Amino acid sequence: MCFLLLFVTAAAGFHEAPFSSSDSKAGPARYTLILEQEMPDGKIVTEKKMETVWSMPDFWMKYKDWKVVDQNQEEITLRRSEHGK
User: Fold this and answer.
1) pLDDT of residue 26
2) Domains of the chain, with CATH numbers?
3) What does the DSSP assignment read for the chain?
4) Which of 56, 9, 57, 67 minimizes the C-alpha distance to 30?
5) pTM of structure
């Protein structure tokens, strides 16, 4: 039963909050956010900033046009292509 719960939790998705629900009651999460924008000429412009996250659903809505490149407990890397804009 425990294995099934772990499997279902792991299969729930990469975009789930990297902190537990008990952690979210302690206050907002803070991440180093790396935004990579691929420009029409192929160059990648990178912006690195600290992001305070009060709600993961709100965070993902804010960055809905971005693709996850990497994510861990401290850092989230997102990429967006500027092609066609």
Assistant:
1) 78
2) 27-85 (3.10.20.420)
3) -HHHHHHHHHHT-TTS-SS-HHHHTTS-EEEEEEEEEE-TTS-EEEEEEEEEES-HHHHHHHTTTSEEEEE-SSEEEEEEE-TT-
4) 56
5) 0.66
